[in-house]
Amino acid sequence: MNIGEAAERSGLPAKTIRYYEDIGLVAPGRAANGYRDYSDADTHSLTFLKSARGLGFSIEECRQLMALYRDRSRASQDVRAIAIAHVAAIEAKIAELKSMKATLNRLIGACHGDDRPDCPILEELATGEVS
């Protein structure tokens, strides 16, 4: 099938599929005319990648997960370790975002939000010491 059909089946844009090919995540065959020829296995891989990326896995993590998926002698502990590490990264990001939210809420509370030109938000940003 052509890239348009692969895009429709996988739910990924053609541009993303080309990128995944460029970085070696998928390797479709070529038709006699030189066009990409995606197999059902290729579209399955693309769907797998879409799901993994949707969960926030990095390209490198997707590469590792794809290799494990294709390796029938894999140990599930290897997959689990990747998922556990990813959850830890998500938790760290959540903590960082909560801290940012608290800081912004504090700054918003300090700002009068009226016609005055002075603004505590801008003043604190200018100090470079926002915490």
Question: How would you characterize this protein structure?
Answer:
With 131 residues, this protein is mainly alpha-helical. It folds into two domains: 1-72, Multidrug-efflux Transporter Regulator, Chain: A, Domain 2 (Orthogonal Bundle), CATH 1.10.1660; 75-131. Helix content is 66%, strand content 3%. The chain contains six helices and two strands, in the order H-H-E-E-H-H-H-H. It has a two-stranded antiparallel ribbon. Helix 1 (3-10) packs across helix 3 and helix 3 (40-54) packs across helix 4 (59-70).
- CATH architectural designation of the largest domain: Orthogonal Bundle
| Strand content range | under 5%
User: Can you tell me the CATH topology of the largest domain?
Assistant: Multidrug-efflux Transporter Regulator, Chain: A, Domain 2
Show unreliable segments.
Answer: none
Gyration radius from CA atoms, angstroms: 23 Å
So what's the overall shape? elongated
Number of E-type strands = 2
What's the quick description here?
This protein has 131 residues and is mainly alpha-helical. It has helices spanning 3-10, 14-22, 40-54, 59-70, 76-110, 120-127; strands at 29-30, 36-37.
